[in-house]
Amino acid sequence: MEIKVTLSQNLKQKPQDESKLGFGKIFTDHMFLMDYYEGEGWMNPRVEPYAPLSMPPAATVLHYGQAIFEGMKCYRREDGGLQLFRPEQNMARMTRSAQRMGMPALNEEAALEGLKKLLEIEKDWVPHSEGTSLYIRPFMIAMDEMLGVHAAHHYLFMIILSPVGAYYAEGLKPVSIYVEDSYVRAVRGGVGFTKCAGNYGASILAGEVAAKRGYSQVLWLDGVEQKYVEEVGAMNIMFAYGNKIVTPMLNGSILPGITRDSIITVARQLGYEVSEERVAIEDIFADIKSGKLTEAFGTGTAAVISPVGHLCWKDEVVTLNNNEIGPVAQQLYDTLTGIQWGKLEDKNNWITKL
Ligand SMILES: *Cc1c(COP(=O)(O)O)cnc(C)c1O
Hints:
Layout: E1 4-5, E2 30-37, E3 41-49, H1 60-64, E4 67-69, E5 72-76, E6 82-85, H2 87-100, H3 108-121, E7 133-142, E8 154-164, E9 175-180, H4 197-201, H5 204-212, E10 217-221, E11 229-232, E12 235-241, E13 244-248, H6 258-269, E14 273-277, H7 281-290, E15 295-300, E16 304-313, E17 316-319, H8 327-340, E18 351-353
Helix pairs in contact: 2-3
The structure holds pyridoxal-5'-phosphate.
């Protein structure tokens, strides 16, 4: 595959203070693009200077939300080398999202090749400090100029990059979570398993309401009975009962996290028993109160592990592990981040070195 490269003539200054990076606010000098035309397939892979897009006001994506994305990271090892964590899983998931949204399957190989080319050009943008990384945002949008509600003929796949700070500058800090019992995130037969843009737009109001009450994320219940635990914010959720870890089973409305899958594997390798099952919120509260349930934590690419300190459901607030990081969350965090930043052996063949 021939990737056409147009380099920027106007390079930006890289951030000097890596402790102030935050998340998703700074973008690198270049981006990757590739077009899809019905009947012709994916074509015209190219790297161009990062710049605003030009599109017709009638572009399908702006009206009917045919937009999907992925989130992954490029990590810098202590020896200065760069690596990716299970990138083929992100591309495969993007194809699954695309199919549900009536969009074309991604050319996953071309997308990975494009990503590697872009990272080769932008390698100096990968930050150096402990816990920092270069966040990778692949996305696909429908570009047809038409107002009919049907699948488009022209799609655009792109990758943009953003250096991000350490999620935990001062060690893993538990968060307070509000159990959302009126709004729902996803329903049976819907698009909950996809990273389609609308899922996140639809979640913003609940997040704002929870934030006003002093909670940093919402815990979503199932969209049918609002009895069963699904996810926390844009993370999957796990519960520890001593040496046993329980997590909601994938049911079509839960996003199949790559971190979730990796934590399940690593936990089993460390000797934990892991069970994927239907988890009732009522049982979770009873088990926290009886002391059987010892820890809860979210899993996702951004934070890796996010321990839950307080949980509020229908005005009742319970505290987990004295609102401190517990041993299970800490061990799983240390193990997975150790693999991702190249400090621990990669027994599962998850790492792609660049
Ligand atoms: C992206 C995402 C996750 C986590 O997926 P990872 O692959 O682990 O980053 C979990 N839930 C939702 C709703 C998400 O969008």
